[in-house]
# Entry
Amino acid sequence: MGKKVSSEPLRNASHAASRFLAAVLSAWFSLKVLNYKAIAKVERKSSKQAAKDQQQHVANRTGLTLQTAKILDSKIAEASPPVSGGKTVDLTLLVVTRALDSLVVNLYRRSYPSFANKAPASSTLTAISRYADTFIFALSSGTVMWAWFYLPDRLPRAYNKWIGEAAQVDHRLIDVLRKAHAGDFIYGEDTGQAHILQDMCSDYNWPLTWGDPVKTIPIPCEIVHMGTGPSCQWHAAVRFSRAFQFALATNLPLQLLVKARSPSFRAFRRACEEAVRSSAFLGAFVALFYYGVCLSRTRLGPRIFSREFITPMMWDSGLCVGAGCVLCGWSTLIEAEKRRMELALFVAPRALATLFPRGHDANVSFLLI
# Structure
């Protein structure tokens, strides 16, 4: 009993020290980010002074007047890109999202005291409180996936890279889907883009006619499957397996590392369970996206809507990707309810960030934030 009492202050002190260290590090990093613009202004002032000195030096050596040297430099400056702004858009949207979450929760609890007191509420309120995070995540992740396909510049470079690694998709297929969305790849017309898919056909030993939009309408789903065979269901299962292994290679070591603070068989088992569940979530996310694409463009979509109402070109120019975006986010139902809330609050700022350009003229930043 005496040992427990003596160890309690030490445990509290270690927790307080870790929280203090985390707060100091996060505050330091945030201030560095927020002060980046001020540092950049100082650097620009120094560069302007250096430019003036350079103008005087050029004028002295070439015999040009100082006014002529300034005109030449102004023309070069006009051709150069403007100073980029929007560096803190992700941090701003993260804070806004967290604030809105706190505001909505407090308003909900004040409007429905039974929810705050854990008393039985109506079935509608229970459903809203239970699946709101799932809906927000599905909407946000669908927005991010749409941006990854058609607006990749609206996502951070690291985010684009990670999604590409998890999706494991041939870049040529993505290129064709983007060209179809932009109107450069059209069924029934020779737009000079057939060589992209025909290169894939050569690599996978498929008939070259499969990649010709004039001869094959629509392109077979087997091209989307990228070597897993003609079955859309089997392709979804393979995608689940690959994404599951990809995620497990990261999730399991992290979970074991976290539980290593208090090692026990129970902690080890819980770490494995949480790692498997999170990996299954990512596997289902990828599988549902790919199956949504196949389901809409060849299996279910053409049976519900006639080819005259929704043409194959309409499916492949955006609707099939949209169907995958709608389905994939519901894989979060695999996760625990608390984890769903964390995922929703993590992805929502990224989805909001796609509404703004990653870089813009610093002089108009007040219009964007």
Notes: The chain has 15 helices and two strands. The two ends are 57 Å apart (CA to CA).
